[in-house]
Amino acid sequence: MLFHVQMDVKIPDTLPAEQADAIKAAEKARAIEIQQAGKWPHLWRVVGRYANVSIFDVESNDELHALLSSLPLFPYMTIQVTPLARHPSAI
Amino acid sequence: MLFHVQMDVKIPDTLPAEQADAIKAAEKARAIEIQQAGKWPHLWRVVGRYANVSIFDVESNDELHALLSSLPLFPYMTIQVTPLARHPSAI
Amino acid sequence: MLFHVQMDVKIPDTLPAEQADAIKAAEKARAIEIQQAGKWPHLWRVVGRYANVSIFDVESNDELHALLSSLPLFPYMTIQVTPLARHPSAI
Amino acid sequence: MLFHVQMDVKIPDTLPAEQADAIKAAEKARAIEIQQAGKWPHLWRVVGRYANVSIFDVESNDELHALLSSLPLFPYMTIQVTPLARHPSAI
Amino acid sequence: MLFHVQMDVKIPDTLPAEQADAIKAAEKARAIEIQQAGKWPHLWRVVGRYANVSIFDVESNDELHALLSSLPLFPYMTIQVTPLARHPSAI
Amino acid sequence: MLFHVQMDVKIPDTLPAEQADAIKAAEKARAIEIQQAGKWPHLWRVVGRYANVSIFDVESNDELHALLSSLPLFPYMTIQVTPLARHPSAI
Amino acid sequence: MLFHVQMDVKIPDTLPAEQADAIKAAEKARAIEIQQAGKWPHLWRVVGRYANVSIFDVESNDELHALLSSLPLFPYMTIQVTPLARHPSAI
Amino acid sequence: MLFHVQMDVKIPDTLPAEQADAIKAAEKARAIEIQQAGKWPHLWRVVGRYANVSIFDVESNDELHALLSSLPLFPYMTIQVTPLARHPSAI
Amino acid sequence: MLFHVQMDVKIPDTLPAEQADAIKAAEKARAIEIQQAGKWPHLWRVVGRYANVSIFDVESNDELHALLSSLPLFPYMTIQVTPLARHPSAI
Amino acid sequence: MLFHVQMDVKIPDTLPAEQADAIKAAEKARAIEIQQAGKWPHLWRVVGRYANVSIFDVESNDELHALLSSLPLFPYMTIQVTPLARHPSAI
Predict the structure, then answer these.
(1) What is the 3-state secondary structure (H, E, C) of I8-38?
(2) What is residue J67's DSSP assignment?
(3) According to CATH, what is the number of the domain B2-83?
(4) Which of A13, A45, F40, G46 has its CA 20 to 30 A from that of E31?
(5) pLDDT at position F14, please?
(6) What superfamily in CATH does domain G2-82 come from?
(7) What ipTM is given for this predicted complex?
(8) Fold annotation for H7-83
């Protein structure tokens, strides 16, 4: 079951740089892990913004929330989730 | 080169039903054609709305505009285009 | 799997009154049918507006879109879908 | 009398982590208390966000405000309240 | 129990003038009726707009919706309802 | 001459608690003073928010601005002022 | 007492051209009349839009609403009124 | 003196096709004329929309408004004008 | 050449009070200076807000930007500029 | 391939002045470098705001994102990218 997810990242200025770097490294590792599990089939950078557009493939809403909230950057992201269905004109 | 495209369709109430049906049939045929040409790799329905989220793969901005404006529903759609880049955490 | 759905109805002024009444009657019948099937556990009127707030309980995004687009008022509604998950503080 | 309530939580970055944890624990206890009193019949997590959608069942506007402002996270939440009425098509 | 209600009126251009006048006259009569019943204690015109700001005093959400939807202009109004509570600094 | 005023309060997290409490106490005293002078005939709490909806009765725009900017919470409020006129259907 | 008023004009496409022209001519005459009475000291065109920014000088909110609603284009305008006060740095 | 101008075109569905085509042809001729006069140095299509982003080079605000309102599509466009200044980092 | 300018001031809470006061005093002096030069013919306070509505009379966009960015409060203001033209109904 | 880019700069108040100055100087140097490479053909200041409107000329979305994210002010900017195509009426 597919979901369209947009994530906008805003790390607060008060977070020390080394702490921010550690979170970003952990984020990257976790993102790769979820992709390798087949749950995050598409991940694109939005040009000019610290943001991504993603497609998630999950069994349920609960699983999707568990995945998203497991991301180390979760507290610093604005996330917008849109459920997708099969399009009648898709081949 | 990938672009994220969201299309919201709003057919005016004044358009006769048979004319609307003809446009929708032509839209479906054209959508399949563009997909088969490899230019429209993803096409999803947004749940609960007469709208889609799509990914286009084109050579240039001009090509993308030519494809979108060739859609029979183009005059009745609000289209939002977002350029995508490779994400550093994508596998 | 639960989804929060808000529907705002706007019937165009150009629709003849008897046709509008027929659609509303069909809408009511279909809404009762979906509720009786256990797929639409909650349906509330928003005070002061021709709108409702609803909870749907479905197996998949595709099923939800099929249900929503089967509503006779679907062409005249603006629908906003929000996926819900279990809340850790819910009893 | 039912009210639709959406709560978005934003804990400021300047709040020490242990203080934030204490407030969250108190929030959970108070949320359970209100639910057990039958005043908060539904509480759902919005997927991908530190937010909930809730239904409150109260005697009056004053009671609703008293309940909401008794929540330990109240100073850190943006709350949107929508009064609900019985829907003519609800079974 | 008090509610803040804002009503913006937009009569469609396609409605014949005499029909619009009849609806406005009926609206005025119904507005006076509800005020005389003590349910609509304040009704003000917003300067420069075909809109009003009102205070309703009702027993329940259902009563408020019944009153608002009984207004002849109801199909042509955008209505926004805000529940009010007693303010701790009010004398 | 009546004005509709909505005030949303947002006290910054960096303000020490005792200082905030002192400002709130001064705010309450000033609010009572203005009400007793007959200039602030209505003051209601918006349910679920640190906000109020008010009606002011003043001689001029200058007097209204003087009153609002005399409030101790003025630097921490977003204030929206709407001029009101007599409504032709008001009794 | 000064008010800042912005008026955006949108004449419906269904209004016959000669009727629209008559309304515009009447609007111009009425605008000149109000200006000559000293009630409308400033009237500017917003570049690129069928809109104006104006300053009105009136005795009361009721007078302002009476003037604005006397404009022949009033039913076709979106009007936004902002009360002005003397600025402490104005010379 | 440069101005950034964005024009969004929305031709009403009620306008007969041949009339719309005549207006579009006249628009094109006028656009070329203004460009050749050196007043409209840049004109770009926004991908996926019936809209353009333009740069105008004029002597005054009045001249800009005269040019824009001389466009045959002016009644059907939403135009947003932004004054530009020299950027200190521009070469 | 006239421009409509709206300035909203938001001084950060972290700025020490004496520094803020010095900036405000310098702002007032500079505002008077520009007014006396005939470049800022109108300056009004927006009732209830730390904001002003102004009319500037300048030779060019560059001059306007130079004036606005010379204001000591410039770094703390959100400024919105609208070019004005002569209105055909202005007397 | 042309892109319309708008950049709004917001340097946090917590950044020390000398650090902010160093970033601005580096930004200017990098902006000149990209312009000299022919990738940034137009760069204008928006009057009254710490913002610019720009045109970029690049080979691909990836190149555009690389250029934008190489700007020293990138972490402090809100950037909006719009793909442009050739306009049929452009000469």
Answers:
(1) EECCCCCCCHHHHHHHHHHHHHHHHHHHHCC
(2) H
(3) 3.30.70.1060
(4) F40
(5) 83
(6) Dimeric alpha+beta barrel (3.30.70.1060)
(7) 0.95
(8) Alpha-Beta Plaits (3.30.70)
